[in-house]
Amino acid sequence: MSATLAADEEFERRRLAGEQVLFLATGEIGLPVLPELREHLIAAAGRNAYGPVAGSAELRLAAAGYWSRRGLPTDPADVVCGPGTKPLLFALMLAVGGDVVVPVPTWVSYAAQAQLAGLRSIPVRTRPGEGGVPDPTELRAAVLTARKAGGNPRGVVVTLPDNPTGTIAKPETVRELADVARELDLVIISDEIYCDLAYAPVVSPAIYAPERTVVTTGLTKNLAVGGWRLGVARLPTAELRTKLIGIASQVWSSTAAPVQAAAAYALAEPPEVIRRVAASRRLHERVVRAVADVFAGVGAELDPVQATCYLYPDFEPHRGQLGVTGSDELTQLLSTRYGVAMLPGTAFGEPQHSLRIRAATSRLYGETDAERSAALLAPDPLTLPWIKASIDRLTEVLTQLLKESNVHRHLRS
Amino acid sequence: MSATLAADEEFERRRLAGEQVLFLATGEIGLPVLPELREHLIAAAGRNAYGPVAGSAELRLAAAGYWSRRGLPTDPADVVCGPGTKPLLFALMLAVGGDVVVPVPTWVSYAAQAQLAGLRSIPVRTRPGEGGVPDPTELRAAVLTARKAGGNPRGVVVTLPDNPTGTIAKPETVRELADVARELDLVIISDEIYCDLAYAPVVSPAIYAPERTVVTTGLTKNLAVGGWRLGVARLPTAELRTKLIGIASQVWSSTAAPVQAAAAYALAEPPEVIRRVAASRRLHERVVRAVADVFAGVGAELDPVQATCYLYPDFEPHRGQLGVTGSDELTQLLSTRYGVAMLPGTAFGEPQHSLRIRAATSRLYGETDAERSAALLAPDPLTLPWIKASIDRLTEVLTQLLKESNVHRHLRS
Q: If DSSP codes are grouped into helix, strand and coil, which group holds residue A179?
């Protein structure tokens, strides 16, 4: 089962059991629905027809405008909608139909999806500080090696901005990747679900390799409606689009019609949507940077925050002191001893011995819609008592963790 | 692409182009949303969290009650929700993970889904007048043959009541199927999406083989909300349920949360839902029987209508007269010459030369919500001018088809 969704469910069980858990395990965005967005869902509640597999004409038009405003001119005919980017990514793997290169570290589901599709995933490390894009030089070598060995790599997945590292690959790296993809005839699947939560410029590979890049995004991260399940893909060729629509028609038929109507409104980006996305971005940035400071303050190594609500600290400098063998044990310790939930690097493709863990800060904004709305509006969200309390608690836990582990080590020795 | 969804889209294009098309190609239910059901979607519009992969606790409880009231005692823990029964059926094929026997004739997507999942589908004919359940004797032979040849059949799909034939397999046949499945250790996947649109008793294989039968259903047919995309599965074992949830977590995460809330209301079956489903069933039965009479009246062969809004007439008695080689040509002729859309038997796994075609009557209830509501309320919907006009037009077309084709044959000879 997906590590993030499993963590969500465990958290909910512990919360219902009355436990106090500081939940930093998953990136579900803990913010309320924008009222105007909710109203558009409500207005479309009577829509009960399947509609086109690729999505309604109004939705595809809105998505085309959304991308066109971001430097990617798009024809509505090139847009395909699905019940989340997750099913779109899965169907794209089936459509591309060969082995697929995935970055390391990597989002929890790419490799699992490839396996379900009966395909091999080929892990390729990213460059330091540039998560989400397999190092183009290593990509080239890995694909050539796989082909020599009789494999059939046909695609490469990139995450821009990146989950789990919260970084953004440099434009030069993206361009190199595009060149290698062209040279080796690979389809690039660019997962850009976090494109509106970037604190530095993002350049899509669709700029450099428009003829072979699929871009996916949705409303899950920018507008906090992950539970509504809607994603959109921008297809580079009629051939791939036709394949994707064929697969979609057999796997999910269409996307919930009332949600499509609301998404068409959102992707057209009226002023209140732009304002809400900007407010969310400010909130995420302020909180994620404060939490990054906490990790840095106790001596964990981490790359500068450039996007998303994710941090990917490395406790390698504390290995001797911690007395754990890897990230699984480290997150287990944090969870059971301190009630702090984070995910181990192993969930993102790291080796067992690595001490990288992933922290997500998007659930720190409050327990109620009132608290969460206040967080969105606050000039400085860090002064809100519930957010301050979480950050203080994390500081206390990490400080204590390093101290106590140290003691344990001494007792054992 | 799915034959039914392709037909839907073609119809919509022709309708927008101003063409008059008598649309009998697909089983989308042309009825408005029950107002109370719409209100429950509206009330849940603020729900934006993913929630559990398997579905919310209230939804699973309601689904368990729904099945328990139908003679299948169900624990809410055994229910898994998905964005339609289509993705559930696909994920179930992956979860069962072996070749799968499908009935012939068969719904358009089972074999296509098996192929996408990298599995082989093994077609087995149904008994006359008992669509949806592969003849148990032939099933046994086909599975043994496949195993001898090194294949790995592990599941069998049944459709109860059946699409495309509008019939229901007899309880004795279902019991025989259950026995064969037990003997050969096959999982039975029982697609019961039409279980509330039956005009004769339906017995689920889950009665005879509860230890190995998965049942799926949803709100698409009984409450006409196909475009909302929600299905539920009832799993027989913890092992299969865990596998299904794991696959669901990687392919679609969860089902639109507002839709889940509305479905929880509907599956609890308050009086107004029961009344609406009963009214729909009455309407479907009246209209589908009238259309069956039209086909019978021109001499097509068809089995007595027992369920659904489907008919599966065979024009074999008119083969000489029609001058077509098979159902593809026959439906093409009906579409281009007369603007009547139906699907060829080939879409349901029939051989090319067969003259079976499938007619669906669920779009005859009107063009507007007002007409459709009137159809639901009418003591005799056949007297409504728009329904009468469609049935009269079909009578005229079929009569003319047989007459004209006859003339053409004479001209050619």
A: helix
